[in-house]
Amino acid sequence: MAEAEMLRREEQHVVVLGGGFAGLAAARILGTRGRRRVRVTIVDRHNHHLFQPLLYQVATAALAAPDIAAPIRKLVRSYANTTVLLAEVTRIDRVAHKVLLDDGHGSPTELTYDHLVVATGMQSSYFGHPEWEAHAPGLKTLGEALEIRNRILRAFEAAENEPDVARRRELTTFVVVGAGPTGVELAGAIAEIAGRTLARDFRRFDPTTARVILLEGGDRVLPSFTPDLSEQALASMKRLGVEVRLGARVTGVEADVVRVGAEEIRTRTVLWAAGLSASPLTKDLGVETDRAGRVKIERDLTIPGDSHVYVVGDLLSLDQDGKPLPGVAQVAMQSGRLAAENILRTIDGEPRASFRYVDKGSMATIGRAKAVADVNGRRFAGFFAWLLWLFIHVLFLVDFRNRLAVLFEWAWAYLTWQRSSRVILEAPEGRSPPRDGRER
Amino acid sequence: MAEAEMLRREEQHVVVLGGGFAGLAAARILGTRGRRRVRVTIVDRHNHHLFQPLLYQVATAALAAPDIAAPIRKLVRSYANTTVLLAEVTRIDRVAHKVLLDDGHGSPTELTYDHLVVATGMQSSYFGHPEWEAHAPGLKTLGEALEIRNRILRAFEAAENEPDVARRRELTTFVVVGAGPTGVELAGAIAEIAGRTLARDFRRFDPTTARVILLEGGDRVLPSFTPDLSEQALASMKRLGVEVRLGARVTGVEADVVRVGAEEIRTRTVLWAAGLSASPLTKDLGVETDRAGRVKIERDLTIPGDSHVYVVGDLLSLDQDGKPLPGVAQVAMQSGRLAAENILRTIDGEPRASFRYVDKGSMATIGRAKAVADVNGRRFAGFFAWLLWLFIHVLFLVDFRNRLAVLFEWAWAYLTWQRSSRVILEAPEGRSPPRDGRER
Fold it and tell me: What ipTM was reported for this prediction?
């Protein structure tokens, strides 16, 4: 290591925080075109890049966790100038050009950067009620997806054990908060699980009588899509048996109840797809943020007053044509790429380019073989939109093995209505429970 | 439920504890030939049947957890007389013919049985040193497999972060205790991970220099096989780079050291494949057990003095031709089947049959494309034995989807040397860690 680093002393050091769509896009430019000009360190607290658009399928037992995750280390292995560190970033020190890390194994370490790319993304946010989180997991990590899968499957299992009708009703009532793409996809998948996958698997109650309630504070589902697609999505949800409530603002979440104003919905399973806030690391940057904590950046993706620090992906707050850019994978990939290009331009003494997002369209699935899509102003709904969704998602899966495996699982699920990952996993570090103890 | 149970009042109630190979084999007989004569309740603390012979592949990142697990509920869904409950069995009361359950959701429940099949299997045992367990996980459940996978992958990740050479050496030293099939398979797979899968993925150290040490207290590896197969397995292990130490009795396991007599092996990753003891539930039966807690049973698989209680699978202690029966899947399946048949014979007023194990052979893999097999006294080693191993294991995978998925993963792994499940999973219930906290 020492010799290698001496040889590269003249190279500048780029530190990329986060191995999501944005960080990985930056790393790819830096690892290929940046070779011999920069050395790169990617820091992530997970060992894997996650294909987040399919995370809801892990949460609803259609895919296994490894199907949508690829080791970051493996994805960048061919870039000789790139090192990957599994660690939590604890602080950014812009004055000293340093990032502090904790790898959970020993003393904290630090990295000195010439250029920093912050791509740590968003986390679930509970409208100022962090106490709701314990009862209503969000869906941002594989751990959360497995937690949601466990909760859904366990609720049905507990219903089979439950003699009391009212409590069984609570156990088979599922509430999803927030009708953006994640909420719509989750609610649709749970309705399918109850109505088809598990239909013949229980003896003491009928899973097809389960209720799936989708709560949305706004006046339509999929508010980021056009109103006509929202209408079609709403109709599809209703056909699946999902109870959609618009204008429903959640005022309380407890272990067995969700409050919407004065109304109480008795339930044991609440899933949160309503709000996001920026990774708290952005506060260390000391620059202006929007309400969700996103960083207001310059058009070249650097932060105001510091051309060594870039903010990319969901974390950026930037208007284009009078509208804020959305937190979608395409913005993440395009901004990650431009940040890397601007770093190389800076090193070469060239002017940095401005970011211009090219919208390639957006889409969401609604249960089996149904989707809505908006591609360059052309809007589709139904089976064709779903085929398009499937094609594009498989195409963008990062790792080739995963692509084939996922296609295989989908084909199988489509033919059989079954879900291949109906497995309740204990905590990985779970020891055998004490004999008279609870399982978890 | 009430009507259904009234209609069946004349049917006898069979309770099966455990949905492993033995319990499932019993349930299949009772659900098909037992229809209209018995109603059946299967209790398991996991929602899935586990194909345990491939568990080490989940632990070594070759397979995803759902590849080798199928919901018990789905496997028996076509048996109209069969109910599945996800619950922990807390007590067996032979006098009252009752089993007490805790489903982790409410008040304890109980089941009254006419016939009881105890098939709860074995758990890891630490030679009277339960304090070793925290540092040396065993491999009996999916949760333990994911824990082992995490430990192996995290050790390499931590080594990349570690500047101190001695500590990096500890992090890249892997100790497997016990050279039965599980220990041999684990050690071989770790050697492959270090030598091939990860070979080009790190920048600050060379994964191919990792040490894999296999400790065995006896005088040969695979002691349940013939001595010539043990020799061949030992030679294969050495070629893979595994350091095998025979006659090595572990006297201490701590967070960063394994003691073998006076010698200290510095390591951060110890895996336990050395001892098993019976599910503690067997103590409630109040009958004689062997040293490992296995229940000494009659030849008809009932316990002495109580013809309503059967003990099957790994839990049974029974001699055949002067030798104790081994704890293998074939004994489990055959004993489960016979217990179910004997229950039906009892109901029909016929005499119960005696158990006679038919040994269909045994096999173990040693790394890539190598195995040893002993089939009806014919012994194979090498590539052919591995093909046989592959064929038989795919054939016996319970669920059809899994069979194809596993074949697919193996073909891919064979061609690419890659492992498709190199994903460190947080605890399913893991919340986002606090910003300045450790990841787990």
Answer: 0.88
State what percent of residues in chain B have pLDDT above 70: 92
Mean pLDDT of B322-326: 94
- Reply yes or no on whether the pLDDT at A3 is more than 50: no
Q: Among all chains, which residue has been given the structure tokens 């989750």? A: A186
pLDDT digits (tens, 9 = 90+) for A55-111: 999 999 988 898 899 999 999 999 999 999 999 999 999 999 999 999 877 667 899
- A112-A277-A247 Cα angle (round to 5): 170
Give yes or no for B17 touching A (CB within 8 A): no
- Rounded distance, CA A374 to CA A358, Å? 14
B426 is catalytic: no
CB-CB neighbors (< 8 A) of B162 in chain A: 105-106
Under DSSP, the state recorded for A275 is: -
The tokens 């927030």 sit on which residue?
A178
Given B144, B147, B185, B216, the catalytic residue: B185
What was the pLDDT predicted at B348? 95
Residues 6+ apart with CB under 8 A from B283: B289, B293
- pLDDT surpasses 80 at B109: yes
- B120 contacts chain A (CB < 8 A): no
Q: CA B121 from chain center: how many Å? A: 9
B192 in reach of chain A (CB within 8 A): no
- In B315-354, the residues whose Cβ lies within 8 Å of chain A are none
Cβ–Cβ contact A110 with B under 8 A: no
Q: In this structure, how many other beta carbons lie within 10 angstroms of the beta carbon of residue B347?
A: 16
A150 vs B contacts (CB less than 8 Å): 428-429
User: Are the beta carbons of B399 and A401 closer than 8 angstroms?
Assistant: no
Q: Is the pLDDT of residue B184 over 70?
A: yes
> In A162-226, where does DSSP find H-type helix?
165-171, 181-192
Q: What is the mean pLDDT of chain A?
A: 89
Q: Between the CA of residue B426 and those of A107, A260, B189, what are the distances in Å?
A: 22, 32, 22
**Cβ-based burial of A320 (10 A; exposed 0-12, middle 13-18, buried ≥19):** middle
Kindly state the tokens that stand for A238. 């209703």
Select from B429, B435, B439, B440 the residue whose CB has the most chain A CBs within 10 Å, as the one to mutate to test that interface: B429
